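Duplicate of #3305? Posting structure anyway:
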């Protein structure tokens, strides 16, 4: 990996090894990272305000920008989200199968 590389992860945290990422940000070769993913999530509602996003202090590094899965939240996408919500509500009212159902067996 070239020196001064910048890593951007907008998929899933575990796609990038957390320990290796932290070392690369502290020692090189990574110059910076933009992370729209977390490695740790709150286990319940009460722990939302006290759960750090990583087991390493990645959040303390000045060369890291973190966002909690909100990187795609732009004005232009709000219309699409509202349309998808309306489609799901309409399907529920009509007794149809819900689009975009969670499938635990597939892990999403």
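Output from current build:
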């Amino acid at each position: 990996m070239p020196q001064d590389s910048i890593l951007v992860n907008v998929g899933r945290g575990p796609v990038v090894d957390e320990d290796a990422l932290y070392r690369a940000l502290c020692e090189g070769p990574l110059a910076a990272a933009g992370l729209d993913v977390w490695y740790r999530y709150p286990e319940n509602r009460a722990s939302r305000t006290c759960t750090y996003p990583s087991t390493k202090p990645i959040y303390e590094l000045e060369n890291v920008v973190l966002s909690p899965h909100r990187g795609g939240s732009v004005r232009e996408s709000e219309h699409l989200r509202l349309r998808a919500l309306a489609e799901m509500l309409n399907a529920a009212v009509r007794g149809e199968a819900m689009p975009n159902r969670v499938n635990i067996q597939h892990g999403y």
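Confirmed duplicate; merging threads. The mean pLDDT is 83. Residues 72-102 form one domain.
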